[in-house]
Design brief:
By secondary structure, the protein is of the alpha/beta class. Helices cover 45% and strands 12% of the residues. It has two domains: 231 residues, 3-Layer(aba) Sandwich (Rossmann fold), CATH 3.40.50.2000; 158 residues, Rossmann fold (3-Layer(aba) Sandwich), CATH 3.40.50.
């Protein structure tokens, strides 16, 4: 069976599917991963065939305001939709769709008859248990949470309007709005697996059938891969350091963030590893090392704490390693994941990106490293996550779908 995984967005929106795809390939499926060109190396390093999706996600990490985020997202989705049908429709027996690609993939499914299945990294269905991930982290009560969740979906559908209209025209389908297509999928109980841990987000009891939370899909990395020698030397040279990185966020703010990071580390009396990322963090010194991309699975278990932007993937990686966090959410779903980490006791109260100072970061680092309650909570969550098998649950769902 030929399976195509279609995913788009930032690195964190794509990397988990490299591990999922590699696991499905080992199970005997012919798996291709379609994503934007920026992540072709990730796909090929996982041993998967790469197929190019239009659009370029780079340069979008500096967006923080909700209105600007909506405009940027709409431009990205419209660009993504331009050649989406051609990229995903050819020679596919099953289409696995991410949160970002599903509202486009549904139309390809309608036009071609190719079965599809949702593989989401975020909870998007409205629930009374928590507010929608893109609107913030404060619960408004069960009724208001659900109402706000429905409103968030309507706003998301607006982002897809132009892309969907163009895609349906190209596929020679009659007009249908994104909201109309979403309602069709809901009525059909279109199946969605959610690749995050119930340690952070238990499955809401008011979700419809067909929506399941199965555990994380972890980014692929070569079992023989090792940390760079300079990083290995630094880790061995003293007490466990703190990791500070913002992933694909905060582009262009490297100088300010680097200064804050170094001052905060020295205020707390800690060593630090700075990951350059899109922000361009950089600092030199006996107590600070700057690195590029390395597998979180190799580095995080050897740290005292992780300072990060609370992207879904980084949040999960720190928790999996049993390491507490200080979160500095920037935008989108990051305040949601930051709040979930704090709620389970594995992170301090989030520091909003716009309010980040060396004093606040240093005090939070001192608290999260010195108080054992944070490490114990992270360790409990790590034990819970070790009992989950996200890839295995996905494989079982696909086998049931194909056998049926």
């Amino acid at each position: 069976m030929r399976i195509l995984i279609a995913a788009a967005g930032s690195r964190g929106d794509v990397a988990p599917y490299t591990g999922l795809g590699a696991d499905l390939r080992r199970a005997g499926y012919d798996v291709t991963l379609a994503t934007t060109d920026a992540f072709a190396p990730l796909v090929r390093e996982a041993g998967l065939p790469f197929r190019s999706l239009p659009a370029d996600p780079r340069g979008r990490g500096g967006v923080t305001g909700k209105r600007e985020l909506m405009r940027t997202a709409a431009a990205f989705i419209t660009e993504l939709g331009q050649g989406f049908a051609e990229a995903v429709a050819d020679g596919t027996d099953l289409l696995l769709l991410s949160t970002t690609t599903a509202p486009l993939g549904w139309h390809v499914t309608e036009a071609t008859g190719t079965p599809s299945h949702g593989m989401y990294l975020q909870p998007t269905a409205p629930t009374g248990d928590f507010p929608p991930v893109v609107t913030g982290s404060r619960s408004l009560g069960r009724v208001a949470n659900r109402a706000t969740g429905r409103f968030a979906l309507r706003m998301a559908d607006r982002v897809f309007e132009q892309a969907v209209a163009q895609l349906r025209h190209r596929l020679q389908l009659p007009p249908a709005s994104p909201s109309e297509m979403r309602r069709r999928q809901e009525r059909a109980n279109w199946p969605v697996l959610h690749g995050f841990s119930t340690a952070l987000v238990p499955r809401p009891s008011d979700w419809r059938s067909g929506l399941e939370v199965v555990g994380n899909w972890w980014p692929h990395h070569d079992a023989a891969e090792r940390l760079p020698s300079n990083l290995e030397d630094f880790l061995r040279a003293g007490p466990r350091p703190v990791f500070i990185g913002f992933g694909s966020m905060a582009s262009g703010e490297g100088e300010r963030l680097s200064e804050i990071a170094v001052r905060a580390l020295r205020r707390a009396g800690l060593r630090g590893v700075l990951q350059a990322g899109s922000a361009g963090l950089a600092a030199d010194g006996d107590d600070v090392l700057t690195i590029g991309d390395v597998p979180h699975a190799l580095l995080f278990p050897r740290l005292a704490a992780v300072v990060h932007h609370a992207g879904a993937g980084t949040s999960a990686a720190a928790l999996r390693a049993g390491v507490p966090a200080v979160t500095v959410p920037v935008t989108a779903d990051q305040p949601f994941w930051a709040a979930r980490l704090a709620a389970v006791g594995a992170a301090t109260v989030p520091i909003p990106f716009r309010l980040l100072t060396a004093e606040r970061l240093g005090d939070s680092l001192d608290r999260v490293v010195r108080q054992q309650s944070y490490t114990l909570a992270a360790a409990r969550a790590a034990h819970h996550m070790a009992c989950e098998d996200g890839a295995g649950r996905a494989l079982k769902a696909i086998q049931q779908l194909t056998d049926g």
